[in-house]
Specification:
Blueprint (H helix, E strand, L loop, with lengths): L6 H5 L2 E4 L5 H12 L3 E6 L6 H9 L3 E5 L5 H10 L7 E4 L16 H27 L5 E5 L15 H21 L5 E5 L17 H12 L9 E3 L9
Parallel strand pairs: 1-2, 1-4, 2-3, 4-5, 5-6, 6-7
Helix pairs in contact: 2-7, 4-5, 5-6
The structure holds NADP nicotinamide-adenine-dinucleotide phosphate (NAP).
């Protein structure tokens, strides 16, 4: 599965995407590869990633890597394998919803911690592991897939304790990173992808993955040192915390 990254591709813009075997992550790989970017497509089980592998056959600028973001040894190994490769956009897309029925009075501590590990701690450790790669690139951008469900201001319906708290915590992490990494020229984008038709979003969701990713790409292209750390809605507006 390893595809040698040639000197030519070092001239190309590069995006690394986690959770890229399905949903929004897969479409991010598709659209960036179609734009001529080098796409480093990471997923837990490349051997089972049929659609991603098919995309990889279509686009020679896609390289597929094994990465469970919650496995720190795998994160470190990939960072070492890519040590001399600049990464223009580090896209922390992988995320889980956790148990469906997170109603009051039904706390599942183990599932909550698993969700915090995947949605909050793993993106932090990805940033730590890949900071030098990002800082060595042209665009120097780190993106995190958050959700409006992490917004206090937007919470009008309650419930979803686990998912909401994980995305709120992710926002706090990314906001601090935006401040701490600014001296190195690294920018941070906190994104809401819309309500998207994926396994997580369900079939009744409002927009397709293609539409969501098209807009996300526009937003990523608009991030500057001045608006780094913003919580972007899918139309480019700012979501109140
Ligand atoms: P999805 O279809 O459920 O896909 C989730 C992806 O994350 C899968 O590729 C999954 O891999 C991967 N993943 C989960 N845990 C992982 C881990 N430990 N290591 C590596 N990969 C892991 O969800 P989606 O709708 O595309 O969501 C992508 C992101 O957008 C998530 O962060 C989600 O919270 C956020 N989001 C989605 C919506 C929406 O409406 N869909 C709205 C707001 C925010 P496996 O196949 O191996 O499980």
């Amino acid at each position: 599965l390893w595809r040698t990254l040639t000197r030519d591709t070092a001239m190309t813009e590069t995006i690394l995407i986690t959770g890229s075997n399905r949903g929004i992550g897969l479409e991010l790989v598709h659209q960036y590869a179609a734009q001529g970017w080098q796409a480093l497509a990471c997923c837990r089980r490349p051997d089972q990633a049929t659609t991603l592998n098919r995309l990889g056959e279509q686009f020679p600028n896609i390289a597929i890597y094994t990465l469970d973001v919650a496995q720190q040894d795998q994160v470190q190994q990939l960072a070492a394998d890519l040590h001399d490769h600049p990464i223009d956009i580090l896209f922390n897309n992988a995320g889980i919803y956790g148990p469906d029925d997170t109603v009051f009075g039904n706390t599942d501590e183990a599932r909550w911690l698993e969700c915090l590990h995947t949605n909050v701690i793993a993106p932090m450790q990805m940033m730590e592991a890949f900071l030098t790669h990002v800082a060595a690139s042209k665009h120097k951008l780190i993106a995190a897939m958050s959700s409006k469900m992490g917004s206090m201001a937007d919470n009008g319906s309650g419930g979803s304790y686990i998912y909401r708290s994980s995305k709120a915590a992710l926002n706090a992490v990314m906001k601090s990173a935006a401040i701490d990494l600014a001296p190195r020229g690294v920018k941070v984008a906190i994104l809401h992808p819309g309500w998207v038709q994926t396994d997580m979003g369900g079939p009744d969701a409002e927009i397709t993955v293609a539409e969501s990713v098209g807009r996300l790409r526009e937003i990523l292209g608009s991030v500057t040192p001045e608006n780094s750390g913003t919580f972007f809605d899918i139309d480019g507006s700012t979501i109140p915390w």
